[in-house]
Write a structure and sequence with these properties.
With 131 residues, the protein is mostly helical. The chain has five helices and no strands.
Length: 131
């Protein structure tokens, strides 16, 4: 027997996203309900619905977008206030466009049979100091 959702869909998608956002940040059902102007019972019903994970996922995407914006603002501040190495390290890891180029290595045996186990050690080239 198929179980039906107690709430077919939220009456306000934006309020449901707000509740999910607050819940992701650790708010209780009561705190989230008060902030969104809903009852705690409504929040409880929302959280057992089949569509709730999609609402949580959207809230998570919005949170991550905010964190990404904050990270970019922080990088701008670092560029102004801190050494270039910190900025480079952060940018390479957080912003795909700033990632270092992929290093392709051709490992050949010169025509001889390779051993069963080959160990490859990659060494990152030193980058001149910005300062």
């Amino acid at each position: 027997m198929e179980q039906r959702d107690p709430v077919a869909r939220p009456s306000s998608y934006d309020k449901a996203i707000s509740v999910a956002y607050l819940r992701l940040l650790g708010a209780t059902q009561l705190e989230a309900a008060k902030a969104a102007g809903l009852s705690t019972a409504t929040i409880q019903r929302y959280e057992i619905c089949s569509w709730w994970p999609d609402i949580l996922a959207e809230a998570g995407r919005r949170w991550l977008a905010g964190v990404t914006c904050g990270t970019r603002r922080g990088l701008e501040k670092l560029i102004e206030d801190v050494d270039g190495q910190t900025v480079r390290w952060s940018a390479e890891r957080l912003i795909p466009e700033f990632a270092p180029p992929t290093v392709k290595t051709d490992v050949t045996s010169g025509g001889e049979k390779l051993p069963a186990r080959v160990e490859v050690v990659l060494v990152r080239p030193k980058v001149p100091d910005d300062g």
